[in-house]
Amino acid sequence: MTTPSPTHKATLQAPTGTRDFYPADLARRRFIESAWRAASVRHGFDEIDGPTFEHLDLYTIKSGDGIVSELFSFSRSGGEKPYALRPEFTPTLARLFAARAPQLPRPTKWFWQSTCFRAERPQRGRLREFLQWNCDILGSEDRAAADAEIIAVCVDLLSALGLTPADVTVKINDRAAVAQALAQAGLTGDPTPGLVLLDKRAKLPEPEFARHAAALGLDLARFDGLMAHAADQCRAALAGHTIDNPAFASLSALAANLRQMGLSAWCAVDPSIVRGLAYYTGMVFEVIADGERAVAGGGRYDNLVELFGGPPTSAVGFGMGDVVLSLLLTEKKLMPDDRAIARALGLAPHAFVLPNGSPEAESALVATVAALRRAGLHTRRSYKTTRNVGKLLKEAADSGAHFAVILESDQEATVKDLSTNTQWPARVPLASLPTQLKPPASA
Amino acid sequence: MTTPSPTHKATLQAPTGTRDFYPADLARRRFIESAWRAASVRHGFDEIDGPTFEHLDLYTIKSGDGIVSELFSFSRSGGEKPYALRPEFTPTLARLFAARAPQLPRPTKWFWQSTCFRAERPQRGRLREFLQWNCDILGSEDRAAADAEIIAVCVDLLSALGLTPADVTVKINDRAAVAQALAQAGLTGDPTPGLVLLDKRAKLPEPEFARHAAALGLDLARFDGLMAHAADQCRAALAGHTIDNPAFASLSALAANLRQMGLSAWCAVDPSIVRGLAYYTGMVFEVIADGERAVAGGGRYDNLVELFGGPPTSAVGFGMGDVVLSLLLTEKKLMPDDRAIARALGLAPHAFVLPNGSPEAESALVATVAALRRAGLHTRRSYKTTRNVGKLLKEAADSGAHFAVILESDQEATVKDLSTNTQWPARVPLASLPTQLKPPASA
Q1: Nearest residue of A to residue B94, measured between CA atoms
Q2: A72 touching B, CB under 8 A?
Q3: Distance (Å) from the C-alpha of residue A240 to the closest C-alpha of chain B?
Q4: How far apart are CA A399 and CA A350, in angstroms?
Q5: Alpha-carbon distance values, B26 to A111, A175, B19, B29, B52 (Å)
Q6: Dihedral of CA A357/A360/A363/A365: which sign?
Q7: Tell me: the pLDDT tens digits for B72-111?
Q8: Complex-level ipTM
Q9: φ, ψ for residue B253 (rounded to 5)?
Q10: Would you tell me which residues 290-309 of chain A have a C-beta closer than 8 angstroms to some C-beta of chain B?
Q11: Span A253-295, pLDDT tens digits
């Protein structure tokens, strides 16, 4: 066996850009994961999962060879093709849907939550391993309804965590509407160069952007005017007005659906939202916190399932990571403290058992704890050697337990309800403790 | 964009040895994970997690360079040391404990459940990516009590899933006892060669085994006699007899603890259990189903935390994978059906909303579903275009929903309790549906 040496120092830390989760860290992560899961289930999504690594090709089919440098890839000898850790789940989702498309319901509503990996140089807020939540609706012919349902589950999660429209805005756009406005403003042929340019708009100096737009034959004032008109119409639809002959029908239909769902206050059309990824085909959206940080993003991708060998399939979805969301909750003081998280996750002990200091009580400790656990009760005990009952009761209270069970002998115990700080009037025979300390109704 | 071609066929399947989880598959996996988590929490373990990949060195420190060929390893340019997907969690656990040993409680009780990876050639029952559950107790000076607690949480999981001592046996041994017997039977010096030989005993022809034993100077009859005596003593301790001057004190103390916990029927001492991994230092055990398949295994590893730069630390733990356990539950008809799993996991819909076929009812569908979900109720709806209420009610029943909500207009609904197949006597105004369809008590 090797002895640890100074050269092992780096080995004995988590790789840069990954995280260790001690119990309190993991409880905060599980709190977010549990909120993600609950929102998904409430909205009728079914959970799926796939391999942590896929054939490298699966990612280049969707994103081109440019993605390879962002992937952790590896090979095995013996003629196996190279693999890569998943940088996102959508290719796996498209693969799963394509493989069983004829048997799957219409629509298919799937959610997924697990880890993704990016091989970029680690920097602040950018991890190499992070958690991601996805919801997707595939095969729905009513695109505006499916788009609205995707936005609804995302907003419901934010709302369930205590965020409000004062904290976050769902900024919505539609690539089809943008393409239509680009064409009306003079761009001929494939709208892609126009979309690519618009995606860079916020980062380019205005004169440079205008020069590029002119080179594409684009009348910028006309384009901006058309999009402003579309946004106005959507604002009116979100406010409950009926739009006759909407200039951009799909955006207006989406706005009408969002209004029916009671989501008007959360949503705004923003013509500047384009989203770089090339595969979006219609609605795109980002959830923006405090005017700048993207908490979630997604959109419609009607060509992807076909690209993976399936039938032409309507598809819309979004992804949300844990890092920005956690920062936001912490800043807004919406991340509960450790004790509240333990309660929310059902992790608070039901009983905490301690002996009163006598050898008889001591001798009953192991069997009593085992019997309570066998009855399904989350039971902790003191492992301290002290016989100071006051100290042990403090340990019980610190554990967040509902009941302290003080063994008075090898026959009976005193029960103290720590949630009300009251002691039961009569001692309880040890044999009837499991029935008397009934599990909570939810167990 | 690339068009799928015959060469993409392999790409469009999960890599060999990994799994796709469609909703029913994932629900079965979540059922097992949820049982693992519940048993861990009941027994007072706190959950931790670490990176999916670690520095490759972390695994060679524990297991030597021989493990490298079994790992999925990969490198990045720019002077970063190589990484490997975790083949097991114990090195990460030891790293986490060593890094914060002074601040951590004594004992520290941790559990972990997630995926592990092995780069071996895939074969039946051996996957390249699989789920693993670990429980570990670190820093307990009462080794027999900690060993018994580790066995207890493992047995509690098996019992909670419906397995009994007729299905599985916890076969226990103690490397310290084996080393003592080896020494008494003539082996001088380091006991390792004797342990290595014993680990191969079941696979070697008896004459060959005897030859190797003789070469080590071992009196095999004497060794077997000593171990049989130890097993007899433990059997007596498990049956409640007090053993004076036990020949193998640690095994007898463990047996006494197991008896106090009510676990005697599950456990047997088996001198043939050695477990190949070199790092065990005391108690070792395997849970054996139907006399042959190992469902779980573990033991005491008092040197490992020190090897990772921490203080000398008592440590004991075990691991259980999902593959053998799932097969066993299925064979024993203990894997619930899809509907029962959905109920157990809280995935059954609370309400299923369908319009009665009228345009007014149709127009209220989106808003009603959104309002129920906002109230926290798991709500599904029909997306079918049929107006045949009978067909839609069948869809509601097939979903496993508790209530069918039949929209009668844009003002009211009929509620049908599908769990009792009774209809509520009066129609319900849509606005009061969220309060009248109260969430279950556990929500």
Answers
A1: A12
A2: yes
A3: 13
A4: 10
A5: 11, 34, 10, 5, 20
A6: negative
A7: 999 987 778 899 999 999 999 999 999 999 999 999 999 9
A8: 0.95
A9: -65, -40
A10: 303, 307-309
A11: 999 999 999 999 999 999 889 887 678 999 999 999 987 899 9
